[in-house]
From TrEMBL:
Signal sequence segment: 1-35
Lineage, uppermost ranks: Bacteria, Bacillati, Actinomycetota, Actinomycetes, Micromonosporales
Keyword Membrane: no
Alphabetic keyword roster: Signal
Family annotation (InterPro entries): TAT_signal, Terpenoid_cyclase/PrenylTrfase
Protein name as catalogued: Secreted protein
Record organism: Dactylosporangium sucinum
Keyword Signal attached: yes
Length: 397
């Protein structure tokens, strides 16, 4: 479902509601798309050919990649390649604020770059591209250089040890490693990523870390770290860390979810963060492990969620009881969400929790939406900087 922050103006009923609530050493790689044009000390990624991305080339389930592909050259070519102090910084303000060199979250699109470098598709001219690999390597160098000695990464200041930057970073770096292994690319950088992941997990999974005070605050960020650790340990097994991960998941289930069923964010509930961030993160753990503990968490959340949404009279979606939300104000969800849809990964629980399906786009509606998208004239559009759809998580959905 599409989420809607309280709108400034919309249908009269919703307007009334809103008024009331007021991603250094390289493997040998073939170059398929890039010309040897250099900017900022690094080769430029060649632009897409005219008419690309061609909508008709995308399988329906992969349409969400199209706008990312359209945006890729501009974002990649913004990577800093001359200043030694910030070499590899993903400049340009494409993702997260503050758009500063010390904010590790800015670098999360290394996963996006690695996906296009690793995956062969008829519409992807950047598979194995040498310029993309060079710039990705630079971005990874900067990303890893930001990690503190204890394993955490910063976000709002260089000295901060950020739960969000570390939790989400573990996931995106683990999946970047997965892509680099698939492409057999950047072997030395892969080894550095493995070491960074191990340090990051040691920080996140330490029971003495203040992030585990009870009740657990910022559960979506902790869940991201648990999901990232799940992926990382499947790629780089470590019996000690695996044991810690399983123990922390059980602890998380006990202390991160309220008796009512919502997840603490920070100490109360937040409909947006619970449904759009937290649920997809724990869905990834469930998909990769089949954890019954995680499934139980999702089932309890579904029961609570069902009491906090109200069906629209015209059947177009649900109103939310967003007055209870501690961080955001998502007033309603539509039945049909066109791609890209950041909530979609959460729907992986539906086979086990059928009632949860009411809150996701139906198979029929999604097929119709994708058919309509493919029939639109012209290439897929670029995404704007800070567009809510330009989110790394969407590539997973």
């Amino acid at each position: 479902m599409v989420n809607h922050p309280v709108p400034a103006a919309a249908l009269s009923r919703r307007a009334l509601l809103s008024a009331a609530a007021s991603a250094a050493a390289l493997a040998a790689l073939p170059s398929r798309a890039s010309a040897e044009v250099v900017a900022n000390g690094l080769p430029l990624l060649a632009p897409l050919p005219p008419g690309a991305p061609d909508r008709t080339l995308f399988a329906p389930v992969e349409q969400r990649f199209a706008s990312y592909l359209a945006t890729l050259p501009a974002m990649v070519n913004d990577i800093e390649g001359t200043d030694p102090a910030t070499y590899g910084f993903m400049r340009g303000g494409w993702w997260r604020e503050p758009a500063s060199w010390f904010n590790a979250r800015v670098q999360e699109h290394v996963f996006t770059l690695s996906w296009f470098h690793a995956n062969d598709r008829p519409w992807n001219p950047y598979r194995g591209d040498a310029a993309l690999a060079r710039r990705l390597d630079a971005a990874l160098q900067h990303y890893l250089s930001l990690q503190h000695s204890d394993g955490a990464w910063p976000e709002y200041s260089r000295t901060e040890h950020s739960l969000a930057a570390t939790g989400f970073g573990l996931g995106y770096l683990a999946k970047t490693l997965e892509n680099l292994r698939r492409a057999d690319a950047l072997p030395q950088r892969r080894a550095a990523i493995e070491q960074a992941l191990r340090r990051g997990m040691q920080w996140l999974l330490d029971p003495e870390n203040g992030i585990w005070r009870t009740p657990i605050e910022w559960t979506n960020q902790v869940a991201a770290g648990l999901a990232g650790s799940t992926v990382a340990l499947q790629l780089t097994p470590d019996a000690n860390l695996q044991g810690r991960l399983l123990e922390r998941i059980e602890y998380f289930a006990e202390h991160g979810q309220s008796p009512a069923g919502f997840f603490y964010d920070p100490l109360g509930c937040d409909i947006n963060y619970n449904f759009e961030v937290m649920l997809p993160e724990i869905a990834e753990i469930y998909l990769r492990t089949g954890s019954r503990t995680i499934l139980s968490m999702a089932r309890r959340f579904t029961d609570w969620f069902s009491y906090n949404l109200l069906r629209e009279p015209d059947g177009s979606g649900f109103l939310t009881y967003y007055a209870v939300s501690a961080r955001t104000s998502v007033a309603y969800y539509d039945d049909v969400v066109p791609d890209p849809d950041r909530t979609n990964l959460g729907s992986m629980f539906v086979p086990a929790i059928p009632n949860l399906g009411a809150f996701f786009t139906s198979r029929e509606d999604r097929a119709a939406s994708r058919a309509a998208w493919a029939a639109e004239p012209g290439p897929a559009p670029k995404l704007a900087k800070h567009d809510g759809r330009f989110e790394v998580r969407i590539l997973l959905s």
